[in-house]
Amino acid sequence: MRRIVFIVLIGLILSCDTERNIPLLAEDTFLKFYGVEGEQTGVDFVLTADNAIVMVGNSNMPGGTQMIYVVKVDLLGNVIWENMIGLANKNNTVKDIELHPDGRLVIAGETEMAVNDRDIFLQTMSGDGNELESVTHGISIGSDEEVKSVSIIGTGIFANQQGFIVAGATTSIDTEGSYIPTPRDIRDAMHVRFTDLPSLQAMPAASWDTRTGKNDSEDVVVKIIRSSDPNLLYCFGYTNTVGGTASGDFKYWVFAINDAGEEAGDLEALFNLLGQASEDEILKSVLDVDISDPFDRGFLLNGVAIDNAGNRRGYFVKFRRDINFGATSLTDVTQAYNVSFGIGSDKMNGFYNPFNNDYLILGTQNSDRFEDLSLFKLDREIQPVWGPEVFGGESFDEAGAVLQLPDGKIMVLGTMTVSGLNGQKKMALMKLNDKGKLLR
User: Fold this and answer.
1) Quick check: is 25 in a domain?
2) What phi and psi, each to the nearest 5 degrees, are found at residue 212?
3) Domain assignment of residue 2, yes or no
4) How far is 435 from 433, CA to CA, in rounded Å?
5) Which H/E stretch holds residue 438?
6) Which of 177, 257, 296, 351 is the most buried (most CB within 10 A)?
7) Which residues pair with 312 in a beta bridge?
8) Which residues pair with 329 in a beta bridge?
9) Would residue 400 count as lying in a domain?
10) Residue 344 DSSP code
11) Tens digit of pLDDT for each residue in 262-297?
12) 384 in a domain, yes or no?
């Protein structure tokens, strides 16, 4: 493992035009920083059709509220445009960006309406940085909605339901029937659907069920993906439910909903086969591997497993495309636990490369007294190929997202703290070679 330390470089970047301050390091690989006055983080990005990258993060300016920072750069890291979005009088937090097939940018996060009262924030933007439509939405008065991701959903059974689904968790517990929430029933899995036409708005509760929750548990959805069935959506998340072989520790969780948002079928047989009883397994992201090869076509789940001593390691789960929820064995599922992240770090994201049929995984890893960005590559059998390549300064740095360009170069987004432990956080973008290295 090689740790790249940027002590000298990151001391140069305290002006507002930080992206211009770090020169190319080798060929067209680089490390660049972005932001304005204050602190900016790097959360997620997408590669656009015009060979550019749009990045999103959070911006805290002195004396102001937290806004969502959106910046588009070319493949050499040069800024094309930048914008601040969100409600100006509220704190806003970004969680995900997706690229619509028509070129629009779809950005999801949260707006803090009051203490412990966040609403969903959803914004569409044009490719040239203009704001199109935005909406904030809370499931019930005073409930707290945590957003994990947004999914672009095409037409299912009902043509008017194309649009977006925001996944996450809500403190608005479903009390259907005579159920009374227990002290352990903190949150239900959230899946709120938004129409795209004629306008961006949440579907009414009469048409779409916004929550799925197990009794006496905390439930979260991380990502929602349309299945091969046009009336079925797969939901990937985690829960600490008790029952069957579930002992009350967190384990990753897969279930299905139909085009009314209702839980589809009896999922308990498969649920009791997943995960390890001795660890909490917190799902972080899901990769949609939508290719023709039936062996590799499916989903890769990645997350962090935490044992009783607090040790954390990455886990990876490979599902076949058509999930058999009535299975009594895991013939269509491969589970792997093979990547150590040390103690205290749990940020993970990933990217599937269809050209090489392999995966890139980016995480936040403890290294000595600090946190660094850790990048590694897995093959189609979710076994290590190389890495981890570790990047960071003498500070606390955090992983954002990773992708691979058609020419093999790797783009990594994250947050780095500049000028030591008490320095400012800045959005950091690295362009690496195909082996995950910044320098020759």
Assistant:
1) yes
2) -135, 120
3) yes
4) 5
5) none
6) 257
7) 306, 342
8) none
9) yes
10) S
11) 988 765 556 667 777 778 889 999 999 988 887 788
12) yes
